Amino acid sequence: MPICAILGCSNSTYHLYKWKYDVCDSHHCKVATGNCFCPPPFKLYPFPTEKRDGAARLRWAKLVNRKNQKGTHWLPHPNGYSRVCSKHFVDGEPTELNPDPVLNLGYLLLDSPMSPRALPRRDETPSNKRRKSVTATQTNVDQHVDDGPDNKRLRAFALDHAYVYKCSCQENCNCTGCIQKQKDINKLTDKVEMLVGKVEELKLKLKNASIKKRFCSNINDKNVRRLTGLFSTEDLDNLCEYVLHKAMKMRYWEGKKKVVSTIVPRNFKRTPKKTGPKSKLSVKDEMILVLMKLRLGLSMVFLASLFGLSVGTCSKIFYTWIKFLAIQLKPLIFWPNRDLIRSTQPKQIINKWPALRCILDCAEIFIERPQHLQLQALTWSEHKKHNTVKLLVGIAPNGMITFLSNAWGGRSSDAHIVRKSEFLNLVDPGDCIMADREFPIQEDLKFRQAYLEILPPSDGYQPMTTEKVHKTKKVANVRIHVERAIGRLKYFNILGNTLPITLVPHIDDIFTVCAALCNLLPPLVCK
User: pLDDT for 254-278, tens place per residue?
Assistant: First the structure.
């Protein structure tokens, strides 16, 4: 194995091999991959051959200043592994100006002819050697440093750091010590700049963490209503406690691509804990992130910077949690029986409509225009003059959302959505269903022995009769509550604004979560 011949220097090809497979601090990759362009820490140069430059080979051997076992001067073997590393050359390599190794040779270069290093005498103990070295250093410092308060500190520094360069030269000196000192200064300057950059990066991360901590911990009822759509901090804590147990075992969405692994599948019955690296956010913080996305309609970039995450991680959290919350909160949207409706029905409604079971209407949400022409045609709404998705919403007389259909394109009619959904299967005989004029479902309800209450049709340009005016007022005073319930849904800005086309595949889950959160609010119609 090629190794440096200088005594005390252990640089070899083994260290270069280890360096190739270490991770670079600047490029964050292994040097052997080819993506790192950092120079090696040192290079190994062979001795000049006798045939090419015998004199230089002899000079190098004398500068190495080693002895054989027989006591003669050491010479490198012609086919050996002896090398000299770049750390012993003034220019980092043999050049015409400085062809010989003269730095860090393990001994001081003197003006007198060099003599081979001898072993210490038996009577010279390590303590005596250190005492002599310190005495020599002190004598050398006293020769070049005058007495004074500042120079005393310099003398103490030189005695404490015996490795400092002993040079009494003036400015613009080109001696070996000054050149090596300048190289060390440049290396330390680069290292300081790199560390300053890391400190600034850590300060930014700490600032983001403090903002997130202050935002998620110091939150009151008013901020909860504004930022999450829930009524109070108590509701937020109860919701977090309700989903906490299952959220700890939740597996996060990793995209459409599925990596086929050859590893033996894990037995989750024995170890049901969540796999992967530890999450940066707690369960409550992740839930607040999703609720803020629904309530405020913020972009993923803003949420990622607010919570100190990457955009990809923020998207992964949202898509996982919106599916999870839709499954966990769907039981809050249920079809109550007739007795429960009667017990919670407001007095002003039960006196006029004692058999009222549900109030129907369709909610339309604007979406971005799809690129596919067929999708553009299916989502175009002539009523809104925009690409929309439409859902059937049914509420109880007290304002609670009791039915929610799947999303349809804006081209679909209200009657078509009613017939294709499962709403008609929930109607019992004798029920009263209230809707708008755009719901011609009288015949469908008659098959189930129920009846429909809608606004009376107009007589064109003829004035309405007194009976029709009273019925219109009577129906409109009750049907307005379904518009208020849809307004509660659109209080979540993700539904109130134009929905990005990337979120359209998740529209059913988004509607389910928003409707369930609306049912956690106080009743819409006071009893």
Answer: 776 554 444 445 555 554 554 555 6
**Cβ atoms of residues 230 and 291 within 8 Å:** yes
| 3 state SS for 246-295 | HHCCCCCCCCCCCCCCCCCCCCCCCCCCCCCCCCCCCHHHHHHHHHHHHH
Tokens of 261: 């692994």
Task: Give the number of other CB atoms < 10 A from CB of residue 472.
Answer: 14
3-state secondary structure 167-212: CCCCCCCCCHHHHHHHHHHHHHHHHHHHHHHHHHHHHHHHHHHHHH
What's the chain's length in residues?
A: 527
Cβ(294)–Cβ(489) below 8 Å: no
Backbone phi and psi for residue 45, each to the nearest 5 degrees, phi listed first = -115, 130
| pLDDT tens-digit series, residues 401-416 | 999 999 999 999 999 9
Q: Which helix (H) or strand (E) holds 41?
A: none
Give the N- to C-terminal CA distance of the chain in Å, as an integer.
91
What is the model's pTM? 0.59
| Tokens 């050049």 found at | 95
H/E segment holding residue 140: helix 126-144
Rounded to 10 degrees, the C-alpha dihedral 349/353/355/356 comes to -60
User: Per mean pLDDT, which of 10-14, 27-31, 77-81, 279-283 is the most reliable?
Assistant: 10-14
Does residue 290 contact residue 492 with C-beta atoms inside 8 Å? no
Write out the DSSP string of 309-351: --HHHHHHHHHHHHHHHHHHHGGGS----HHHHHHH--HHHHT
Q: Write out the H or E segment, with its range, that includes residue 432.
A: strand 432-434
Q: Give kind and range of the element (H or E) at residue 164.
A: none
CA distance 473 to 469: 6
Q: Cβ distance 44 to 84 under 8 Å?
A: yes
Q: Please count the other Cβ atoms lying within 10 Å of the Cβ belonging to residue 317.
A: 26
- The residue assigned the tokens 């220019």 is 91
